[in-house]
Specification:
This protein is α/β, with parallel strands linked by helices. 41% of the residues lie in helices and 20% in strands. Strand 5, helix 8 and strand 6 form a beta-alpha-beta unit.
Length: 281
């Protein structure tokens, strides 16, 4: 596996691969890789001739500087994992390489980017679109792989792909969970053992809500989830939204949309770590 830090070198490597008729898969990451990321990489390796994994902690999608500072940085371990998974290229550029000057582009895809995370993290999805559009232009992948844990992010990126006319396939991949049910996340490494156990309660409640929803309204189900999670002393719900899986607009009845998903964000612990998850109804 090659580790590349230069955009020009990356483009050169990929031009040579394409000249041989090879297909290219891209897995964008912010590093601190875990088995959830590994599942995306293995999927790309199985479906493409060349897999590029970007490792770039993108500053423009953090509206909280302390969150950016706390985000784990584990480049050496990340590269070792990628090699085990069969990736051909790790692209690990500096901030100056990706942003030689400030990116002033503004992206707006309401309602998809205006609700849930978009409403509570101003500028977050704008930063996501900035960096992902840059990665797509550098790599020009045939397919790009994203974890469904970031359910709203995939919906926003789909809108951006349509807007820009990128010729690629977005491949959503299932959430990978720890044995406890907790969705794998780079932020999990910031949890104490006690907080880790508490965080597993989030998905347990979401699973309970599937049975609860059979005999209760959307609003009652929403309140059930919030109350059950908030009853745990280590957990506090920021929001729980039950939405149309395509538009991400709120639904008020179970027959309002062909596919419905519940999206949640919970703060865990005394130095709160922000965790997200979702479940399909």
């Amino acid at each position: 596996m090659k580790t590349i830090t230069s955009i020009n070198q990356l483009r050169g490597e990929l031009a040579a691969a394409r000249a041989e008729g090879k297909t290219v898969g891209l897995v964008p990451t912010m590093g601190a890789l875990h088995q959830g990321h590994a599942s995306l990489v293995r999927r790309s390796v199985s479906e493409n001739d060349v897999t590029v994994v970007s490792i770039f902690l993108n500053p423009t999608q953090f509206n909280d500087k302390s969150d950016l500072e706390r985000y784990p940085r584990t480049l050496e371990a990340d590269c070792a994992l990628l090699e085990q998974c069969g990736a051909q290229i790790a692209f690990a550029p500096s901030v100056a390489e990706v942003y030689p000057e400030p990116d002033t582009r503004q992206f707006s895809y309401p309602p998809t980017d205006a609700v849930m995370e978009g409403a509570r993290r101003p500028g977050h999805f704008n930063g996501v679109c900035q960096v992902v559009s840059k990665l797509f232009s550098y790599v020009e992948p045939d397919r790009a792989y994203f974890g469904e844990k970031d359910f709203q992010q995939i919906a926003v990126i789909r809108r951006m792909v349509d807007d820009f006319g990128f010729k690629l396939q977005i491949v959503p991949c299932p959430v990978v969970r720890e044995e406890s049910g907790l969705a794998m996340s780079s932020r999990n490494t910031l949890l104490t053992p006690e907080e880790h156990r508490a965080a597993a309660h989030i998905y347990h409640v979401l699973e309970w809500s599937l049975s609860f929803a059979k005999d209760h309204t959307v609003d009652e189900t929403q309140q059930f989830v919030v109350d059950c999670i908030n009853a745990h002393p280590q957990l506090e719900v920021e929001y729980y939204s039950i939405v149309d899986a395509d538009s991400l607009a709120d639904v008020h009845a179970w027959d309002e949309a062909a596919a419905i998903v519940g999206c949640i964000t919970v703060y865990c612990g005394t130095k709160p770590i922000r965790l997200i998850d979702h479940i399909h109804y």
